[in-house]
Amino acid sequence: MKKLAVNICRLILAVTFILSGFVKAVDPLGTQYKIQDYLTAMGLSRYVPDFMTLSASVLLSATEFILGICLLFAIRRRLVSKMVLVILAAMTLLTLWLALADPIHDCGCFGDALVLTNWQTFWKNVVLLLLAIIVWRWPLEMQRLISEPNQWIVMNYSAVFILVIISGRSLYTLPQFDFRPYHIGTNLREGWQRMMDGEDSPYADFFIETSDDGEDITEQVLNDKGYTFLLISPHLEQADDSQLDELNQIYEYCLENAYPFYCLTASPARAINHWCDMTGAEYPFCQTDDITLKTIIRSNPGLILLKDGVIIRKWSHNALPDEQAFSGRLEDTELGQLPSDNVASKILWILTWFVLPLVLLTIADRLWAWSQWVRKRNKKYADKAKKAIKDNNPLNKENRIMRKKIVAGNWKMNMNLQDGIALAKELNETLKADKPNCGVVICTPFIHLASIAQFLDQDIIGLGAENCADKEKGAFTGEVSAEMVKSTGAQYVILGHSERREYYKETPEILKEKVLLAQKNDLKVIFCIGESLEEREAGKQNEVVKAELEGSVFNLSEEDFRKIVIAYEPIWAIGTGKTATAEQAEEIHAYIRSIIAEKYGQAVADDTTILYGGSCKASNAPELFAKPDIDGGLIGGASLKCADFKGIIDAWKK
Ligand code: PEP
C-alpha cells in the first residue's frame, strides 16, 4: 500500500516536472522574459544582465525536465526526492507571495502552454508539495524502471535532448512548439476583429501604426487578401544584424511582386534611422507594442508571412529562407502555403527520437535484469542442488555414516608394563568420563596387551598390537603370531609401519602374508603406507603409496578390503616434528581414495578409513581432520601422554 502510494505520487510529480520543464525549454526566450518579470517585481532587474537571465532560463527548465525524468525512472532516488522537495517548498512560498501580492498575473510555471491564476498555481504547488513529502519520506519505495548501471544513459540522453535539441534549437531558430496566440495558422484578422467587437481577446495590444505619421494601419494590413511580410524587431538597437543582405533581398522580392513589407518595432525614430543607415534598409517602419512584438516571434529580428490575415510562416533571423525559395510568385510555391509539418508530426518526431530510444533502452535493461535474475535464480537452485548432493555425499565429512573416524596410538617400543598399564588406565578413565567423538585405539607392545585388555573398556578404546608374524606358528623364535595377538583380547594390529619396513626389512610380500594371517584371526589391520623424503622430493609419493597398496592389500577381496584401515604416514614426517600440511595430506589422501575406487569401486573407497600419521599433535589435528579425505590419525609420540592423546581425540569435537 505504501509502495503504491509513493509510486503514484512519484508518477504525478514526474509528469508535472517533465511537462513543466519541457514547455519552458521549448521557449527559452519566453522563460527568460518571465524571469525578468520576476526580477522587475522584486526591483532587481537592473542588477541582472540578459545573458544571466537567459542562462537561468535554460538551466531552470533543463533541471526541471531532468528531475522529472529521474523521478519517472527512479534514478538517484534519495537525492532527487530531496531536490524535488526543496524546489517545491521554495515554489510554494514564492507562489503564495504571488497570490497575495499579485505582482505578476501569470506565474509562468507551464510557460504559455497552460496559464493558471496565481491562486490556482499556489494550490497546485501545495498539492505537489504534499506528494513530494511522501516521496521524500520513502524514496526507496520508488520502483526502478532501469537498473543502476544504465541510469547514466537516461540522464545524459535526457540532458542532451533538453539542452541541445529542445532549448538550443529553439533558441537558434524558433520554439518548436508555439503556445502563443501568434502561432502558425492563427487568423490574426479574426482575432483582432473579435477584440474590436469587444470580446475578450489576446490581441488587445496588437496595433500597427506608421512611424512617420502615426496612422493606424492595423486593419489595412490584416485585411489584405494577399501576402504581407512583417519584419519584427521589438528593439532595433538590440537586433542581430548578421542577415541584413538576406532581409534586403526579401524586401526587393516583395517590391518586385507587389507584396507589402513592413518592419514592426517599438524603437524610437533615432534607432530606426540608425538601423537604416547601418543596413541600407528601405522598407517602411511601423510602431507596435514591444511586449506584443516579443510575443509574436522569439527572434530579434524575426520575419512572419501573413496570407489573408493568417500567419502562415515564421522565421528566425538565423533561419531565413534562401534565394531560391523566392524565385516565383508565392501563390505558386510551397512557401506561400501553410506548412504541412504540424504539431502531430513534431510530437511524432519527439516520440521517435526521444521517447522510443528510452523505451527500447528500458526494455533491453529489463530483459537484461530479468536474465540476471534468472541466472541468479538458476545459480541458487544449482547451489541448492549441489548442497543437497554434498549433503548426501558420503565423502562429505559431516555426512559420513559408513566411514569410521579413528584416532589410534602407536606406542612403539616405549613404556614398561607398569607405565603402560598406568597410561592405559588413565586413558580409559578419561575417555569414560568424556566420551570421544571417534573410535580410539591404542596399539601397544605385545607384552602389554593381555594385561591392558583386562581392564580396558573396549567399547570406548580398541586394543591393538604393533606387529604380528608372517607365519602362522612354529619354529620362529621371538615371533608373535596373529593368533596369539588375538588371544590377548586385542582387535587391531598395525602392519607395514615404515619403521618395520625399513629396520626389519619387511617387504610387500611379507606384509601381504601378515595381512592375510591377521584377517584370518579376525584382527582389524591398520595398514601403513607412505613415501620417504627422497621419494617426496622426486615427486614419487603417489607411485610409492600405490605400489605399497598393490603389493600387500589390493589382492584382498572387496569384503576383506573393507576391513582394512589405511594409515598414510609420510616417513619424513614421522617423529621428526615436520608435519605434512593439511593440503599436502588431503591431496594424497584423495589420491589414495581414488585408487581404491579404481580397484574396488567408489562405494568401497567412500567407506575406507584413511588415517594420517606423522608428527600429529593436538595443535595441528583439527586442521588435518577438517579435510574431507582425512578420517583421523595414527599417533606416535603424542600418544604416550594421556593429555596429549586426548587433545588429538578431541579434535573431532571441534
Ligand atoms: C608413527 O610412528 O606412526 C607416528 C605417526 O609417529 P609420530 O606421531 O611420533 O610422528
Please give a structural write-up.
- The strands form two sheets. The chain has an eight-stranded parallel barrel with strand order 7-8-9-10-11-12-13-14, surrounded by six helices. It has a six-stranded mixed sheet with strand order 1-4-3-2-5-6.
- The longest helix has 50 residues, at 343-392.
- With 654 residues, it is α/β, with parallel strands linked by helices.
- It is rod-shaped.
- The protein has helices at 2-25, 28-41, 50-73, 77-101, 118-137, 148-172, 188-196, 218-223, 244-257, 269-279, 290-296, 343-392, 417-433, 446-455, 482-487, 498-503, 508-520, 533-537, 541-552, 558-561, 582-600, 602-607, 621-625, 642-649; strands spanning 209-210, 227-233, 261-265, 285-287, 302-307, 310-316, 406-410, 439-444, 461-465, 492-495, 524-529, 565-568, 610-613, 632-635.
- It contains 24 helices and 14 strands.
- The chain binds phosphoenolpyruvate.
- The site of phosphoenolpyruvate has 13 residues, from strand 14.
Question: Which characteristics define this entry?
Answer:
654 residues; 14 strands; binds phosphoenolpyruvate
Q: In one word, what is the shape?
A: rod-shaped
**Biggest beta sheet attributes:** 8 strands, parallel, barrel
> Helical proportion?
40-55%
Question: What compounds sit in this structure?
Answer: phosphoenolpyruvate
The secondary-structure class comes to alpha/beta
Oligomer: single chain
The number of E-state strands comes to 14
Count of helical regions: 24
Low-confidence stretches: 392-401
Rg from alpha-carbon coordinates? 50 Å
Order of strands, widest sheet: 7-8-9-10-11-12-13-14
* Termini separation: 49 Å
